[in-house]
Amino acid sequence: MKVLVIGGGAREHALCRSLSLDPDVSALYCAPGNAGIAEVAELRPVDALDGDAVAALATELGADLVVVGPEAPLVAGVGDAVRAAGIPVFGPSGEAAQLEGSKAFAKDVMAAAGVPTARSYVCTTPEEVDAALDAFGAPYVVKDDGLAAGKGVVVTEDLAAARAHALGCDRVVIEEYLDGPEVSLFAITDGVTVLPLQPAQDFKRALDGDEGPNTGGMGAYSPLPWADPKLVDEVMESVLQPTVDELRRRGTPFSGLLYAGLAITSRGVRVIEFNARFGDPETQVVLARLRTPLASVLLNAANGTLDTEPPLTWREDAAVTVVIASHNYPDTPRTGDPIEGLAEVAAQDAPEAYVLHAGTRREGDAVVSAGGRVLSVTATGSDLAQARERAYKAVARIRLDGSQYRTDIAAKAAGEVR
Description:
Strand order of the largest sheet: 3-2-1-4-5
Radius of gyration: 20 Å
Shape: globular
Structural class: alpha+beta
Number of helices: 13
Largest sheet: 5 strands, parallel
Distance between the termini: 48 Å
């Protein structure tokens, strides 16, 4: 099977790593990729937002499957263009991807499907914003209705900051604050059958102790030793299957990866948001634990034959990933700094720990930073404590001037913090 992965972040590196280990994959390409992905896949240049260009590349390569990684190409309908060329695509249509592309659309789908979520208001005027903020009170939760590269959500006690963020968006969703720990649960679906993966937890705030601004994610771990063993079944019944059924009922079937961001509140499970693709950095730890070869699962989802797929199998190991970010992230990150220590991790820590690239590029013989989140250092172990120890041992080998990372990823779940 020839597989083309679209994207160039740590999520795509994790996908390419898993696909490269699949005996059914005879050729693996990534466009545009990054410096790390080049070690496991052949890179091809492409504008990931240009559906015709992606379809032409897939046709040229004779791809049997195209996996569209990031949200922006999905919402732009890149998957539709590839499907129109007769090539199976793992990823929803542009219309179905509005589940992530529009918070208001997602709320409407959840309401119709009876999916539990936060009470909310959709606001387009300053008067509506003020009324909604007053109705819910602090902490204020303000979400840009559209895509914002992981930076469209503000959760704050500061009314002025909440209002400023809301007024900076064309349309916002303002909702009640949900208490309790957050969980990410992915599911692969062909629009009818839903196949859940293992849950993970990520860390959105930039600094230890969940302080600092929101980011795209500074680390993650799986499994969740504190979670109810029935959590996945509950979310399947109350969230994932009803959402897939509702989208199919509307004539916009969702095929691909459905990501439910959940809050385990005092009143039960509530959906914070949906994404229409694998999440970053949770993908890094979920795929590290997946034993089932990935390619056939994605192809069956793309072809509408997921009901023929046997149950997924999982390693008993735990996994932890720690994100190394550029100087000044999540504001305007500094780029172009050389990254050292990658070979040391490969020589001394593999296969238990390895580095997945996000914002990197190659300059001659050097790998340099090229974005805010630069690397995801991922490790496995017999339990979270061992996986965490291995991850941070590998992190310590990486040298990137001015870089930052959280030191408390999975610490509480591993029993190291009370």
